[in-house]
């Protein structure tokens, strides 16, 4: 746990003698003190009856900044954005009942994407638990399937230890959300605060070091394979292993694909990068996986959006699967070489083992493989339709954002077409620069996540790339940004529709557009006026020739949030596409246009 400077002579004396810090205080004071001790500097939340006792000592804290959000969902996503941008545990706080249940969506989101957050909720007084008291909800029971662990605390004495345990569990092993639900009487009772506490987690022993025999077997298979591929997931970024991945890739010469959650973990500009795989992945990445004879899956879980029809996914490939969570190994696809361990440790050991293979004269020959894959890259690059009426193509907006804002910025995307365009057409060179809701697909993620990321990394330019549908779910957090001085920038890709749903209606429902029209023609709402009402700067761009000037204008404004309404063509679609439930072999790179897989062979 990070150290904290003692705040009184008695504490200083105790600290210098290496003795535990002890002091009488309320449970609420113990909660705030524990948060300070574990190094928390920012909490996103909203007060209410059951959690109110905690807000009183929080008012006096000089180490913990509380950010008053406008909706608890915003608090949860902001904690996620903070965690993803900093690598530290994000913290959100809410009261009992509806306050706590409003955190369910971001908690589920964090669980799916392995984001370390701690959610602290107030609960009704312990004698009232189970009586259907005012604003009572069994949030521990509700969130049990979507938390890494959760706690119900009814004694003030347990608060410091529980906070220490919560942060340890959230940040170690496979990261994830932890809920701490504290009854109101526990917050109000008196206790003796002691730090550091003795944690009681007897069954929690995440394995980080991989087995050496499995590493050697993996290195042997990599050397013998003719068509190997590194299939890289978000776990590599979570393990801070992008440097090691680059070294291993260059050592072996094996092509790399990076999933949606791993964008930036391997540089887009690197010649070995094949792109993003999956439903809206590049032809070269999808083709590489489908024609591989060996998948080296690192920190990834064989998600259905990557595999398509599972039975036809990479049909000729053996699988090396490395993950810190043993439950993921062979869950969806049998692993020929299962490796349980932290990806940074795994990749480091693989580097050593491959070097040993090469020193003994065994080195993989992938020349034919590269001829085929480079043919895919040249023949089927990412592209998009430009509209004859001069309307704005959303992909062009992404290309210009990438060119003018650059690879050092952080981009947070909502969910839908704009998310895919941001993943495809913005070039990512650095890990942790693309934040999005991958597993849960949560509309409304982008704005609060961008806020949390900017507060965690104030030195970074942060853009939220949002759709007009997503934006209307959590744009109230623009008020928080304006008041708290968090100058994020929001690119609203406004096609007047729930775009991804409309795309499916176009392709699979005979163009029957049931309840996807968001009434852009009437400008309800007018996003420029809405931005101004929230104390932000609002800009609008409707023509390709104005895109660069609008982005530059947004970049020049650094003291308040900026919202740019990019009005794009409603019929723009995301390509390539693998229809849900079909084989990746059936990918279309444009409507009714499929690659000739055998052409390069």
TrEMBL record:
Residue ranges of domain Thiamine pyrophosphate enzyme central in the record: 215-349
EC class: transferase
E.C. numbers: 2.2.1.6
Segments of this protein annotated with the region Disordered: 1-23
Cofactor or coenzyme needed: Mg(2+); thiamine diphosphate
PROSITE patterns on file: TPP_ENZYMES
Gene3D superfamilies in alphabetical order: 3.40.50.970, TPP-binding domain (3.40.50.1220)
Keywords assigned by UniProt, alphabetized: Amino-acid biosynthesis, Branched-chain amino acid biosynthesis, Magnesium, Metal-binding, Thiamine pyrophosphate, Transferase
Top-level taxon of the source organism: Bacteria
Catalytic activity of the protein: 2 pyruvate + H(+) = (2S)-2-acetolactate + CO2
Residues in Thiamine pyrophosphate enzyme TPP-binding domain copies: 414-566
Amino acid composition bias (Low complexity), ranges on this chain: 1-15
Pathway: Amino-acid biosynthesis; L-isoleucine biosynthesis; L-isoleucine from 2-oxobutanoate: step 1/4; Amino-acid biosynthesis; L-valine biosynthesis; L-valine from pyruvate: step 1/4
The UniProt record lists the keyword Transferase: yes
UniProt cross-references to InterPro entries, sorted A to Z: Acetolactate_synth_lsu, AHAS_TPP, DHS-like_NAD/FAD-binding_dom, THDP-binding, Thiamin_PyroP_enz_cen_dom, Thiamin_PyroP_enz_TPP-bd_dom, TPP-bd_CS, TPP_enz
Thiamine pyrophosphate enzyme N-terminal TPP-binding domain ranges (all copies): 25-140
Cofactor note: Binds 1 Mg(2+) ion per subunit.
Keyword flag Metal-binding: yes
Family: Belongs to the TPP enzyme family.
NCBIfam families: acolac_lg, PRK07789.1
Protein name: Acetolactate synthase
Record organism: Microbispora bryophytorum subsp. camponoti
């Amino acid at each position: 746990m990070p150290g904290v400077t003692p705040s009184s002579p008695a504490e200083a004396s105790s600290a210098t003698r290496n003795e535990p810090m002890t002091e009488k205080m309320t449970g609420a004071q113990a909660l705030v003190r524990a948060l300070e001790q574990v190094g928390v500097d920012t909490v996103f939340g909203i007060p209410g009856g059951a959690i109110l006792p905690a807000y009183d000592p929080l008012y006096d804290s000089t180490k913990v900044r509380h950010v008053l959000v406008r909706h608890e969902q915003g608090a949860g996503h902001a904690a996620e954005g903070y965690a993803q941008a900093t690598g530290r545990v994000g913290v959100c706080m809410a009261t009992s009942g509806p306050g706590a249940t409003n955190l369910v969506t971001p908690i589920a989101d964090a669980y799916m994407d392995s984001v370390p957050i701690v959610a602290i909720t107030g609960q009704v007084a312990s004698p009232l638990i189970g009586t259907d008291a005012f604003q009572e909800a069994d949030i521990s029971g509700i969130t049990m399937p979507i938390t890494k662990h959760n706690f119900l605390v009814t004694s003030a004495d347990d608060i410091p230890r529980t906070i220490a345990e919560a942060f340890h569990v959230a940040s170690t092993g496979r990261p994830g959300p932890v809920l701490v639900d504290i009854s109101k009487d526990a917050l109000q009772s008196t206790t003796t605060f002691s730090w550091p506490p003795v944690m009681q987690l007897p069954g929690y022993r995440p394995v980080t070091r991989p087995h050496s025999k499995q590493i050697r077997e993996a290195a042997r298979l990599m050397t013998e394979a003719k068509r190997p591929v590194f299939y890289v997931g978000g776990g590599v970024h979570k393990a801070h292993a992008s440097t090691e991945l680059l070294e291993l890739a260059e050592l072996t010469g094996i092509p790399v694909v990076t999933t949606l959650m791993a964008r930036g973990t391997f540089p887009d500009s690197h010649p070995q990068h094949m792109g993003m795989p999956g439903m809206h992945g590049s032809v070269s990445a999808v083709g590489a996986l489908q024609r591989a004879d060996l998948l080296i899956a690192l920190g990834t879980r064989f998600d259905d959006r990557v595999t398509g029809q599972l039975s036809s996914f990479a049909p000729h490939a053996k699988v090396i699967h490395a993950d810190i969570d043993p439950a993921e190994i062979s869950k969806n696809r049998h692993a020929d070489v299962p490796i349980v361990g932290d990806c940074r440790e795994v990749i480091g050991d693989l580097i050593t083992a491959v070097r040993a293979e090469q020193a003994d004269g065994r080195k993989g020959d992938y020349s034919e493989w590269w001829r085929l894959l480079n043919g895919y890259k040249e023949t089927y690059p990412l592209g998009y339709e430009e509209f004859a009426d001069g309307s704005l193509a959303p992909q062009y907006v992404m290309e210009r954002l990438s060119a003018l804002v650059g690879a050092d910025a952080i981009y947070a995307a909502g969910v839908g077409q704009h998310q895919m365009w941001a993943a495809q057409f913005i070039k990512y060179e650095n890990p942790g620069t693309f934040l999005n809701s991958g597993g849960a697909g949560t509309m409304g993620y982008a704005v609060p996540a961008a806020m949390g990321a900017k507060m965690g990394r104030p030195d970074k330019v942060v853009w939220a790339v949002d759709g007009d549908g997503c934006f209307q779910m959590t744009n109230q957090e623009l008020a928080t940004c304006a008041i708290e001085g968090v100058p994020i920038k929001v690119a609203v890709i406004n096609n007047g529709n729930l775009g991804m749903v409309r795309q499916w209606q176009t392709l699979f429902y005979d163009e029957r557009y049931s309840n996807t029209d968001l009434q852009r023609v009437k400008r309800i709402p007018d996003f420029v006026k809405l931005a101004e009402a929230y104390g932000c700067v609002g800009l609008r761009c409707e023509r390709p020739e104005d895109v660069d000037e609008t982005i530059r204008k947004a970049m020049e404004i650094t003291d308040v949030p900026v919202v740019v309404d990019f009005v794009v063509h409603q019929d723009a679609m995301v390509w390539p596409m693998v229809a849900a439930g079909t084989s990746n072999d059936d990918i279309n790179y444009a409507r009714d246009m499929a690659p000739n897989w055998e052409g390069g062979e």
